[in-house]
Design a protein that fits this description.
mainly alpha
């Protein structure tokens, strides 16, 4: 059995055991524990995501002129980068297209994981459960499409057609969050809460999976229960892919 299949089966088992609703205290405890681990020894959680240096470079200062971003600022900066990568994949060819797609795939995987674990519980208490669950279901569909694209030949017209459908779904999802969810959360939270959210988003993204896992997507409970295993498998896959690309004759 392949490592990917093993990870998917383990995620499915965890998902079926998870309760329908996440306990917010459990999610908070998870984020705090991961943050404490990273703060205590940053070498134990090496930054393996190729998108992270660009994220730091492209984050924008707040409109009020302050340099420090809150949690919504961080997510909006990542939305900007997601849109840029979507456009680049749509226009690129060959190895450039492949590398850009993998960068987009990693960014989306970690971004959506952080939103579901950190943002969505807050959204349920501000804008409402129905809206929060609608965003979760959109992210589950995005993960399904992304996993499908990952297994396709990127040089084919079939990939391009499927990617166009995927891009529309992502763009619509980002717009829904920016119009409804983000303003509601920002208005309901204090500056201190929003700054803490930024820190927790970054920490979760640092240890999040780098590939889509549709079985657990859309559920905060399933996400935090399976992060360690799924992230480990994904980083093994990423390291193996990077090694193959460095081999002579490739």
């Amino acid at each position: 059995m392949t490592r990917r299949k093993t990870a998917e089966l383990a995620s499915e088992r965890a998902y079926t055991r998870a309760p329908a609703e996440a306990d917010e205290r459990d999610i908070q405890r998870f984020a705090d524990q991961v943050a404490a681990l990273a703060a205590g020894d940053s070498d134990t959680a090496p930054d393996l995501l190729t998108v992270r240096p660009r994220l730091r470079e492209e984050q924008k200062p707040r409109e009020d002129g302050s340099a420090k971003q809150d949690g919504i600022d961080v997510l909006l900066s990542q939305h900007d980068l997601i849109r840029q990568l979507l456009a680049r994949v749509g226009s690129a060819q060959g190895e450039c297209k492949e590398s850009t797609f993998h960068e987009l795939r990693a960014l989306l995987a970690m971004h959506e994981c952080a939103e579901e674990i950190i943002l969505r519980p807050v959204s349920k208490s501000t804008i409402g459960i129905d809206v929060a669950e609608a965003r979760n279901q959109e992210e589950k569909e995005i993960a399904r499409l992304l996993a499908e694209l990952e297994g396709m030949d990127m040089s084919t017209g079939d990939f391009d057609s499927r990617f166009a459908e995927f891009e529309l779904a992502v763009q619509d999802h980002l717009g829904q969050e920016e119009r409804d969810e983000f303003p509601s959360v920002r208005s309901a939270c204090s500056e201190a809460q929003l700054r803490k959210m930024a820190s927790r988003v970054r920490v979760v993204e640092r240890v999040a999976p780098t590939h889509p896992h549709p079985v657990v997507a859309g559920s905060a409970t399933a996400q935090w229960m399976t992060i360690p295993f799924a992230a480990l498998i994904d980083r093994i896959r990423d390291a193996s892919l990077a090694h193959r690309k460095r081999e002579p004759g490739d």
